[in-house]
Amino acid sequence: MNDGGNMETRSQFVVDSLQCKIHLSEAQLPTHWYNLAVELPFSIPPPMHPYHERPVSADDFRWLWPAEYLDAELRAGQYANELRIEIPESVHQAYRRYRPTPLVRARGLEAYLDTRAEIYYKREDLNPGGSHKFNTAVAQAHYAAQEGVDTLVTDTGAGQWGTALALACSQFGMNAEIFMVRKSFDEKPYRRGLMKLLGATVLTSPSEATEIGRQVRREDPGSNGSLGIGMSEAIELVRTSPHRKLALGCMSYHAALHQTIIGLEVRAQLELIDRWPDVMIGCVGGGSNFVGFTAPFLFAAPSGRTMEFIAAEPEQIPCLTVGEYRYDWADYNRQTPRLAMYTLGSDFLPPPIHAGGLRYHAKNPVLSALVKHRIVGSRSYPQGDVFTAGQLFLRTEGILPAPESAHAVLAAIEVARDAGQKKNHRPVIVFCLSGHGYLDLQGYMDVLGHS
Length: 451
Ligand SMILES: Cc1ncc(COP(=O)(O)O)c(C=O)c1O
Fold this sequence. Notes:
single chain, 4-stranded parallel β-sheet, 15 strands, 7-stranded mixed β-sheet, alpha/beta, globular, binds pyridoxal-5'-phosphate, 36% helix, 16% strand
């Protein structure tokens, strides 16, 4: 799209009549993230020390995280009171390579469902990592590089976050060390390969490289691993060397904050076509894409309008639908601060479903509080139905969603089907397509019987 000179007016937006893609120009890319925490009408219980009955201080965890990360988690500095946080230029520059991403009207799916609803999806699959994770990876790499960090260490489920971090580290001249949950390490060799092509070190988790990894392997030689175990391994590695720091793709407030670029774009895109969502849907692993996607809408409904926010999770990992709201650790080995959140217990070992990015025992504290205060609702779905929804999306929209994102597709289908029952109401449903599933084909083939 040409933004120059007298094209300015035309470039405000383009609505393609066939696909109905709603574009923003590069010049309209948001320059700030949306610091939702300052807008919440309730307070979130503070992160507590892992073992002592007191809130954590930054000094407790300087060895683990870059300073900017700690500021965001502890709502210190600008994060304490500024609603808009400026996106650093080098991060904005990286965003400009693939953002703004289109918002698409799902006309094929609507026609198939014969629904009264309008369905839109935000494409977060259009970057080299294939998911929303790069939005925060590049920001975390920027802040770490600024502090002179040499290596970022992390855990990854299906590999999207690991790929995003590997790419971001390669762009900022840092090393990436990635503990990949064994189930995905074995099943998704191409994601593993992509991380290695990007220069990352990739270890299967539980691994032989850490004490906690060896312990889990001793206790359960066939362990599939989990994000919580991978996180414990990453933390142990950081503890042993000052040039390493931890990066987290889903659990942190920091990650969710960076993902607000998604919601800010969606808001501008819907304004262009004079729509306001009735229902917003996202899948939830740690909660970062969901919070980022919905943040600019959560407390902004025009007067007289009600909105529904639906967090979609796997039936086999029912944190929000069945879990308890309480303090718990974010990792398996109880090294992190204790956070107030919905959890199935930090020692919960998630069943080996294919949506590896959702195999996590808890949800981040902001999302958890939004659910506790009934601002956000939740639904859970069985794997077979999720994959069938993903297949339907492929056939009607021409995109294969990541197994994680297919949870959001299924929730949107469910809501759109319900909409058919209510006459005189044409709800606007918007969901976040958090990633593509082209490296998850084996899972689709296995579950849907196409092997
Ligand atoms: C494509 C995709 N969607 C969603 C998620 C879940 O993460 P979050 O809830 O933090 O967005 C992941 C995690 O790896 C993912 O890869």
